Amino acid sequence: MERSVLNMPLIVTEAGYWINPYWFWGIWLALLAVAAFLIRYYRNKLYRQRALIQKLSENANSFRYLVETAHEGIAVVQNKRLVYLNPRMCEMSGYSEDELKALPSFMPLIAPSARDVMMENYLRRLAGKASPQRYESLFLRKNGNSYPIELSGVAIVWEGKPATLNMLTDISARKSAEQKMHYLAHHDSLTGLANRAMLQDRMKQAIALAQRTHIPLGVLFIDLNEFKKINDTYGHDVGDCLLQKVALRLNALLRESDTLARVGGDEFVALLTQVNDMNELQQCMGRIEATMKAPFYIQHHVLLCHVSQGAAVYPDDGNTAQALLHRADQNMYLDKQHYYERDAVITKAP
Fold it and tell me: Are the C-beta atoms of residues 153 and 166 closer than 8 Å to each other?
C-alpha cells in the first residue's frame, strides 16, 4: 500500500534502515548551525589574535622607542655583565655598546670607593633580600672622570635567567646646584669668605675644642673706617673691589686653622684658634694695621684704607660666641672713636 513520503513516519533508506525525516533534517540544520558558529568563532578569534599581535607589536615599538630615547641610562646586568643597555647608557659612560658588553663585569663603570656597596646591593637584589631600590653612587666614565648617579634597580628574569634591571640618572647638574647653594649659604658672595652663619658654626666648634684643651682662642672684629665715603666718591664698583682686596690681605695674615668672615658691609671677623693670651692677639692686630697701610690700586685710583679693630679672648671675655663677638665689637668701636679723635680719614693717595 503506497503512502505519501510526507505522511510516512518512517522511510526506507537504501541500506534498509527507517529514518524519521524530521530528525534527519533537524540534525543537518543543527550541524550547519554549529559549523556557522564555529566559523564565526574562529574568525573572530583569528581577528582578535591579529589585533592582539598588532597591539603587542605597537606596544613593543613604543616601549623600544621609550627605552632608546630615555633620559636615564638603562642596563640589564646578568652574571655581573651588561647584556642590554640603551643609547643613553653609552652616552653617560663614554663607551660604545660593544665595549660595554665586552666588559668582564660592570665594576669598571663604578668608582673604586663605591664598588663594595654596589656589588653588595647587586648580590642582595639577586638573592631576593632587602636592598635599597633607589640610592646614589659614584660612577666612572671611560676617560676616568667620576660623576654622581642615582640608581634604581629591580630583580628580573632575562631570557630565562636571573638578572637585574637598572635605571641610572646622571645627577651631576643637581649635585653642582646643591653644592653652589650650600656654598652660598655659608660664604659671602662678594669676597668668598665665610659668612655669619659659618662663623657661628666655626666659633661653636672652636669653643668646644678650647674647653677640652684649655687653650684660649681669640676673636678680632675689624671695620673699615669711612668706607661709605669711598662708595660715594668712587662708586660701588670701586667699593666692592676694595672689599675683595681687603679680604685677600687679611686672609693672607691668618693660619689655615683660623677663619676670616665678612659679617656686614665693611665688617670682618677673624677667629684665631689656640692663642696664648691678649698679647698674641695684639701682635696680630699690629700686623693687620701695618698691612693695611699699603695703598690699594683700583681702576686707576690709588686708595689708602685704615681699619679699626677690637679683640676678645676666650674664656676671659666670654664663653659663648655671642659674648665674644659682642665684646670684640665694643672694643672695635672704642678704637674707631680714637681714630676719629685723631682726625684720621680715608683719602686718595697723592
Answer: yes
